Each structure stands twice: as C-alpha cells, then as structure tokens.
Amino acid sequence: MLTLAVAPHPLLEVGAFLMRFPVPLVELTTPAAIAALALPGARAPIAVDEAVKTAVRDLLRAGGFKPAGRSKPASEYLVAAVAEGRFPAINAAVDACNVVSLHSGLPISLVDVDRLETDALQITCAAPGSSHVFNPSGQVLDTGGLLALFDAVGSTGTPVKDAQRTKTHDGTRAAIAIVWGTRALPGRTAQTTAWYRELVATIPGATLEDV
Fold first, then answer.
1. What mean pLDDT, rounded, does the chain reach?
2. At what angle do helices 92-104 and 74-83 cross, to 10 degrees?
3. By the 8 A CB rule, do 113 and 126 touch?
4. Is the pTM of this model over 0.85?
5. What would the pLDDT profile of 169-204 be if each residue is shown by its tens digit?
6. What pLDDT does residue 79 have?
7. Which residue in 111, 115, 98, 122 sits closest to 17, CA to CA?
C-alpha cells in the first residue's frame, strides 16, 4: 500500500491521490472536455491571477530555492505555453494534470507508481547540492531547498520539474498526483484537487484512490 509522509513546513498544503487505468496510457484518448481546457480563452471552475503566482513562488522560496528563469514553477510554464500556442498534448493523464495546473496556478507532479523504488513516500525539502535528471537528454535540475517527493532513491516529483526516471510514459498504468498547494491560498488546494479528480474520472476506465 502506498503511503505518503509530509514533513512539517510553514506553507505547504498537499493534495494527493492515486489514479489507475485499465490499459496502458498509450491506448487511451484524452477526453475532448480535457483537451478543450488547453485552448486559449477556455473557462474553468478556478482561475489564476498574480496573487496565486506570488503565493506559489513564496512557497518554493520558503526552503531556500530560487523560483526564477528555468527554475520557475511548472504552472507558470504552462501559462506561457498557451499564450505561445505550444501547449503540450502528451497523454490523457498528463493532459488532465496540465490543464488543472494551468487554470489553478498550482504546480502538480505526476509520477509513475510502478517506477518508484518504495511504497513509503515522503515530501520534504531537498538538501543543498541535491539534483535530478528531468528529461531524456540528461539535463539536470538543482533541487537544493526545493520541495520534492522522495522514494528510496531520491527526488521524483517537484513543483518545478519531475525526475525523468519516474515520469509517466506510454506503458503507465498507475500514477500518483501531487498538488503543490500553499496555506496562503485558503481552500485552493482542496478545490484544485477535487476538480482534478473529476477530470481524471472522465478518462475511460480510470479509477481513483486516496493516498
């Protein structure tokens, strides 16, 4: 059974759940309602503004991380991607993750459960000097001071970039979602997580579990 321990933090408010699929993700089509949320001008039950952007950056700074440039929160990347007409369409699970992050302004990690090295996961700030590879070409993210989801090997998901070794892929059948929320935005984490679960439930055959 998958368990998640969250280390004390002055701002962090986590939303988490497990999703399972009856077939590998490559065999599933992203529902039209999810895809439509990635279009410019799409309306959603929740909307982002500058206050949300500031609060998320403050959340990441609390551990000593500097969320700027290539190390900005993943949610900010998505806003820019829509504006520039390059919003990524990857697979049903990631597409749902991305549109929720886009509209809520909260970063979200999506990690393949079968690629984890333990069932006992932990969220805490990475130690100074920590890092992980975040893409197939081997580029490295300096995670020192950054909030991260850890398994027995090291960091897997973060509010900036997830580790390549545990990302979802064509064969993924189960994934854990981590919504990186902040207490500075009361109710937003719960609202975002609930809406995210609703969208994932529209993927044919998907089942959800609490963590």
1. 96
2. 90
3. no
4. yes
5. 999 999 999 999 999 999 999 999 999 999 999 999
6. 85
7. 111
Residues 84-129: tens digit of each pLDDT: 878 888 999 999 999 999 999 999 999 999 999 998 999 999 999 9
Q: Which CATH architecture has domain 3-210?
A: 3-Layer(bba) Sandwich (3.50)
Q: Which residues contact 64 (CB under 8 A, 6 or more apart)?
A: 125, 128, 144, 145
Two tokens at 54? 């500031």
Q: What is the CA radius of gyration of the chain?
A: 16
DSSP string, the chain: --EEEE---SSEEEEEEEEE-SS-GGG-PPPHHHHHTTSTT---SS---HHHHHHHHHHHHTTT----GGGS-HHHHHHHHHHTT------HHHHHHHHHHHHH---EEEEEGGG-S-SEEEEEEPPTT-EEE-STT--EEE-TT-EEEE-SSSEEE-SS---GGGB--TT--EEEEEEEEETTSTTHHHHHHHHHHHHHTTSTT-EEEE-
How do the domains of the chain map onto residue ranges?
A: 3-210
CB of 156 closer than 8 Å to CB of 162: yes
User: Residue 92 CB: number of other CB atoms within 10 A?
Assistant: 26
Residue 124 near residue 63 (C-beta atoms within 8 A): no
Q: How far apart are CA 89 and CA 91, in angstroms?
A: 6
Q: Which two tokens stand for residue 8?
A: 């004390």
The residue whose two tokens read 């580029």 is 139
Residue whose structure tokens are 């090295």: 117
